[in-house]
Specification:
This protein has 205 residues and is α/β, with parallel strands linked by helices. The protein has one domain: Ribonuclease Z/Hydroxyacylglutathione hydrolase-like (Metallo-beta-lactamase, Chain A, 4-Layer Sandwich). 20% of the residues lie in helices and 31% in strands. The protein contains 6 helices and 14 strands. The strands form 3 sheets. Strands 1-2-3-4-5-6 form a 6-stranded mixed beta sheet. A 6-stranded mixed beta sheet has the order 7-8-9-10-13-14. It has a two-stranded antiparallel ribbon with strand order 11-12. Strand 1 and strand 2 form a beta hairpin. It is globular, with a radius of gyration of 16 Å. The model has no long low-confidence stretch (mean pLDDT 96).
């Protein structure tokens, strides 16, 4: 398994490309049309798009990938927000790009996309249906945390369906994961769960 991190062009989220065969890829949170070019540069075809949540800065590149045949997957609790004002396109004045979700997954569900095994983790607080995705790659443990947990910080809770009380519970769930996990967040740099347990004031509460 290989993982590539694609930083945003301008305002946007980090995007992650995962591939088991170096031919097809699962794209986590495609933030813009530049993601298609990054895939092509690596000789990868997008098979699936996996969303941590539906805010515009995480989904702006979904439509282009769906036109290439990618199937879109998100947590079942986030599906009602897709295509609504809760996705913040209008709030931030971003041109809306339409897409459809072909599959939803539930909290705790283990599922396979393009030969890659994921476990879905419901992490409400940033949005009602925010999710994290756990991947075990040999001895490595990866957590794609979306906008729930960042290096030294956490996601905002003042957007539609956000909840400070819920994100506190989500952080406790993350804190209680067994062992250390490499954290690949929706914004900023990579970190580890052990580091955040030690230095992130929101996990220390």
């Amino acid at each position: 398994m290989k993982k590539y991190k694609i930083y945003p062009k301008g305002f946007g989220a980090n995007t992650y490309l995962l591939t088991a065969d170096e031919k097809t890829a699962v794209v986590i949170d495609p933030s813009g049309e530049h993601v298609s070019r990054e895939l092509s540069a690596r000789g990868l075809t997008p098979a699936f798009v996996l969303l941590t949540h539906c805010h515009f800065d995480h989904v702006f590149g979904v439509s282009a990938l769906q036109k290439q045949g990618a199937k879109v997957v998100c947590l079942d609790l986030e599906l009602p927000l897709v295509g609504t004002r809760a996705d913040l396109f209008e709030l931030f004045g971003a041109p809306r790009t339409a897409y459809t979700v072909e599959r939803t997954v539930k909290n705790g569900e283990e599922f396979t996309l393009a030969g890659l095994r994921f476990t879905a983790m419901s992490l409400p607080g940033h949005t009602a249906g925010s999710a994290g995705y756990l991947v075990e790659n040999g001895e490595e443990k990866w957590l794609f945390s979306g906008d729930t947990l960042f290096e030294d910080s956490i996601g905002r809770t003042d957007f539609p369906t956000g909840s400070a009380a819920q994100i506190r519970q989500s952080l406790l769930r993350l804190k209680s994961l067994e062992g250390d996990w490499q954290i690949f967040a929706g914004h900023g740099e990579d970190t580890t769960l052990n580091r955040e347990r030690k230095y992130n004031m929101f996990l220390a509460e």
